Amino acid sequence: MEKMDRRRMVGVVMLHSPPIDKIGALVLLERRTSGEIPVYRFWETNRCTRAQLGSWRAQGIEPIDLGNEKYHQAGMPSAAAYTAKRHGMTVSAGEKALLDILAKNNESGWLKGRPFSTAWILRELYELGYDPQQVVRRVAHVVSCFVRVEDGERVPARDDATMEKIFWCELRRMRNSQFAPMTIPRYLRDMWYLGYQPDKIREMTKWWTHGWNEAKNAHKQAQAAFPRMRRVEFRASTRRCALVHTDDKFVVRVAAQAYDILVVRKSAGQVGILAQKVSLLRLYGWLKAQEPTIWHQAVGAISNGGWMYPRVMGTKLTDEQLIAAVQNNT
Prior knowledge:
It is a single chain. By secondary structure, the protein is α/β, with parallel strands linked by helices. The chain folds into two domains: 1-226, no CATH class; 229-329, Diaminopimelate Epimerase, Chain A, domain 1, CATH 3.10.310.20. 48% of the residues lie in helices and 13% in strands. It has 13 helices and nine strands. Helix 1 (20-33) packs antiparallel against helix 4, helix 1 (20-33) crosses helix 6 (132-150) and helix 10 (198-225) crosses helix 11 (249-258).
């Protein structure tokens, strides 16, 4: 594996509340600089000029998935894949496995749907107010351990039978994850294979199970709050739709399951549109034509700002205009 000069890379800039593929990109860089690379800044808007990107690089600060270097604009499947290509990385077998699952996750949300998924938990932790610097470092360790084990690194004496005996209590509660990539049990097993001491493994995995339990409790509270939530219900052809005003992401998650299309306006004026099995491509085109700089698209969603871009200006479109746009463009 090629090496990069650690002295020339003193930090990275990442999106606010970065998801797992951005953190995967950070891990690829760290594996070539032999040490942790600190997050210099979390970027909170969807715009970033070429001049700003160049200024950071001149200081030894590497931007990840910002400005005109976003992975989808380059036709790449993930931020990690774009980083590997940009830096001419020759990826190992473990890194190839990482890139494959990040691509699959960006396409379908595959990782987030697994029981005890760290890719799912990390997004909830941001909403619960966890320090993003700490979350990034925790996720980076999960990703790094996965890659090392996929590369064949393993202490020979660490067998599965002994692991099952030592951690039977922890694994029994999470057996339905089946050691899928980036889940808590897989992380436990990866650390076991790599030679971590049992107490350290328990300490590292307990942080994740605590976060999982906190997130699940927040979702239960949201389910109780949803029936009392004020909303404007409407139809777009045969589709059930609603518009709500809330800053509570957990209530939004519950509401989104009840409708084919959900329009959410935050108190700051920013809007998100979530859909279940409905194409939002035409609606996205219409919104971009009205306000070209503030809308962006993700899998099953359109957002004006949102959890990764909290500083983006809210839309000037009224609730009535948004409802009409959904009805006329979906």
